[in-house]
Amino acid sequence: MKILYSLIAASMFILIAAACGSDGDSSDEGSRDVAASFSFEAFGNENFDKGQPISLDTFEGQPIVLNFWYPSCPPCRLEMPHFEAAFQTHKDEVAFVAIQQLGLDSADEGQKFTDEFGLTYAVGADTSGTVIREYEVITFPTTIFLDADHTIVRKWAGPLNEEKLNELIEEILPAL
């Protein structure tokens, strides 16, 4: 019986660790163009009308920061103010897109999260799970950095602080 409880405890630890992410960098330099046609409906905020479709084509020719999250994920909540601050700093150079995983939390909870944090960039829920599958997201939060051609430059699993986020954004900015 002790072995069974140990196996259950170990399995739960692995699931929790995967659900809430880990600090880590997974460089995908030169990776393929992934999910160029993905689309989801935006939550309402000052820049996007609720239900407006968002796709990579919306940000043609711009580098993109894709952030995968869900509202009840503590590390996701921790990093969101940093993403809004980075968006305010880089909004003329880089597009930001936050994609909610549905399951543990509803789209309505995602909208409340967007309102609570005052997020002004593109935020919405992946209602079909297609985008999360296409980008092979297995931990939350995960952030993927795309260059202006929408090729993956870097994938980061785990929360980002403002300093590291800005450092990684610099990697996708076009050289002047």
Report what the structure shows:
The protein is α/β, with parallel strands linked by helices and 176 residues long. The protein has 5 helices and 8 strands; from the N terminus they run H-E-E-E-E-H-E-H-E-H-E-E-H. The strands form 2 sheets. The chain has a 6-stranded mixed beta sheet with strand order 1-8-7-4-5-6. The chain has a two-stranded antiparallel ribbon with strand order 2-3. A hairpin with a 5-residue loop joins strand 7 (142-146) and strand 8. The relative contact order is 0.23. The model is unreliable at 4-23 and 27-32 (pLDDT under 50).
Which sheet architecture does the biggest sheet show?
Answer: 6 strands, mixed
> What's the order of the H and E elements?
HEEEEHEHEHEEH
Q: What spatial form do the alpha-carbon principal axes imply?
A: globular
The CA-CA distance between the termini, in Å, is 64 Å
The secondary structure category is alpha/beta
Please provide the count of β strands.
8
Task: State the share of residues found in helices, binned by percent.
Answer: 25-40%
- Total DSSP helices: 5
**Mean pLDDT level:** 81
Give the helices and strands, then pairings.
Blueprint: H1 2-20, E1 25-27, E2 39-41, E3 53-55, E4 64-69, H2 74-90, E5 95-101, H3 107-117, E6 122-126, H4 130-134, E7 142-146, E8 152-157, H5 162-172
Parallel strand pairs: 4-5, 5-6
Antiparallel strand pairs: 1-8, 2-3, 4-7, 7-8
